[in-house]
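Researcher: Here's my situation. A collaborator sent me these components and asked whether they could plausibly form a single complex. I don't have experimental data yet, so a predicted model of the whole assembly would be a useful starting point for our discussion.
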Amino acid sequence: MNMCAELSGYKGNVLKFLMKADLQIGDIIRITRNEEVFEGTLMPRYELADDNHIVLKLKNGYNIGIKIHHEMVVMKVGTGAKPTYKLPYQPKEKRELPTVTIISTGGTIASRVDYRTGAVHPALTSDDILTVVPELSKIANIKTKILFSLLSENVHSSHWTKLAQTVAQHILMGVNGVVICHGTDTMAYTSAALSFALQNLPVPVIFVGSQRSSDRPSSDAALNLINAVKAAARTPIAEVMVGMHETSSDTTTVLHRGTRVRKCHTSRRDAFKSINIGPLARIKGEEITLLEDYSRRDPNKQLIINSNFERKVGLLKFYPGLNPNIIDWYMDHGYFGLVLEGTGLGHVGDHLFPQIRKAVEQGLLLGMTSQCVWGRVNMNVYDTGIDLQRIGVIPLKDMLPETALVKMMWIFSQTTDIEEAKKLLMLNIAGEFSERTLYEK
Amino acid sequence: MNMCAELSGYKGNVLKFLMKADLQIGDIIRITRNEEVFEGTLMPRYELADDNHIVLKLKNGYNIGIKIHHEMVVMKVGTGAKPTYKLPYQPKEKRELPTVTIISTGGTIASRVDYRTGAVHPALTSDDILTVVPELSKIANIKTKILFSLLSENVHSSHWTKLAQTVAQHILMGVNGVVICHGTDTMAYTSAALSFALQNLPVPVIFVGSQRSSDRPSSDAALNLINAVKAAARTPIAEVMVGMHETSSDTTTVLHRGTRVRKCHTSRRDAFKSINIGPLARIKGEEITLLEDYSRRDPNKQLIINSNFERKVGLLKFYPGLNPNIIDWYMDHGYFGLVLEGTGLGHVGDHLFPQIRKAVEQGLLLGMTSQCVWGRVNMNVYDTGIDLQRIGVIPLKDMLPETALVKMMWIFSQTTDIEEAKKLLMLNIAGEFSERTLYEK
């Protein structure tokens, strides 16, 4: 990365290319490539950028990346103002529009949308959001709140609590919907957490993230954010949801139920998938299509807040030859519960049975999920499942292991009575399981 | 389940139905339902069967399940011989056919194909196989070997070793291919294990299982077994593979590379998916379509056998708030290595860093994979990844966590030298990773 402020973040070929053309960050330039013409402000790049893309901020507010090419013609058409922190305009509150709060917790969508600082993890300010995605002000009156500036792998249950309380505050203040910018890595854990922490929601709560930072040619940040705000402002679905790209093209987003969603690809824009149910809705342009049953938006609903989580709950993935003594560790450390991520229909090797029995006898709550990801556990088919149930392991239907973990953490913040905990575990609180599998061949 | 031998395994409605019709196991019956007519031998059912299907053995050797219905007409058309253990015919060895060894380790495909005993976990004998699926004798001269009778959740690394050695024996005796019947739960772990244990294979080694027992209407056992034997006998691909249903319909199977496959549904017949690459081949009827690069069959190749596995290697799935002290457990118990199943591009919360550093300093090999399942880790994008690499965690490209675990177990059976281990970990031994991701949007 070059240290020259005028071309901050550019390196290698593209740096040479820009220096040769005598360009600086902030210049308004016109690029002609084959038949196409792009005009916009030359933006800085930062943090491990590749060395063959120029980033332009177009007039419509989007950033695009353009690959340099020897046949490309670049012309400076104006000396633009250096990008500043100032909002280009201050949208006035419009009475006819709904109000949406955007809460920022960090992650790619928040940190990389700010293309100006060159810092690695800046938080998203309200100014930034409307500067970068001016469309938002046509959809809703936007309130913003910077709560954290965290990469999501560093989000813990205490953050879930704080976040749930902040969302609740804004809902109680009467906003029509809440959008939460969150890193994608653990977004599904946090969306599950809020699904349990905030019940009987009067309005939608939409998690949104991006898989590509907005200085990359293929960023999903703008579309995801616009559609999340649309969903918060307009959908009749008052649930905790995740709104992300439906496919790898930049056209539609889908809303996933917060307890049923999983990041299923490290980098694709359509990484998030609803598991064992379909997405709740699809957003394409101005059109929101409802796809599944849901809880209805209703301003008269009384929000129920239960935002604590017990840390002494574990998730243990089974694999061949797993040492059964690892279960002792959880017993020795005063754990309340353990979600097993078994194989197939909900199995673990029988060499674990003695330790599992000991854990159950010590009063730990043990629930079974499947590492298959898709499908449901059925512990009535094979001896292993039947034996495990006799020992006291609870089959957790088609609940995701991650959701089951979060649910158990939530349960044990409310009760330490094992029978009460079992009842809560089997109670469908936030659509986290289905009684039957609808499609199975 | 009724205790009446004549209608062994039937219960509830279907038992009443059969008793009313005065039928016994072994009777040849004709069932007319709407326009359809089924004729065959009434078979016993067992183990948690539902109470509304009759199982018939058709003349072509398949079992089918037929749902009872009040408009259905059932007629006894003959008193068939009671099903016996005898082979109905003894196919002679045919010189022009290739020879395939079928090794049975247990699992649904082996235990439930034997519809006659009523016992829960019988092993598959050579007689059984050819009785149940007589087509096999037209594809190859079949040798069989019952090695274990295990539900696959009880398969350990010592079984992998024994299995690899048995496969090697048969290959060295000159068979044209090997088929391994295995429970589906941990099939992918075992297929990965054999991929490392048996290198430079001269012939194919095909794992096969079934998701539904053959006394169920929708069993996948017959097609999977027939196509596995075809693949072993005829494909030019000399790799360890898994051959299972491609879709939920009973038409094609696909061959997955043994290090790249995962059971992705608890119960669907198309549960097995190739991850991050496509399947190597598709089998439809007599047609085998090759789809990816592969190692070629060649009888002159010298098989390399390296069949041991070290048990002191662990797999640790990260989740928010994971207690870092769990890593101490692995250090205290003399572990050699730990595969981390991180979030997204290969991250864990920074609260784990001190313990991870301690583990690395103690000489443990730590590798990073992703719980996303699809995609590849990239620890050069965010601070977390960069920090983890500095501490000494090795990014494991697009390797599956389960494959990485098995590989590390295999590596530490050969060396305890950490540098040597690292080199082996980064060496592509059985197509377990790709250097680049071909499709990513």
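Model: Some features of this prediction you could bring to your collaborator: Chain B touches chain A through 72 residues (CB under 8 Å). The domain at 5-78 of chain B is CATH 2.30.30.520 (SH3 type barrels.).
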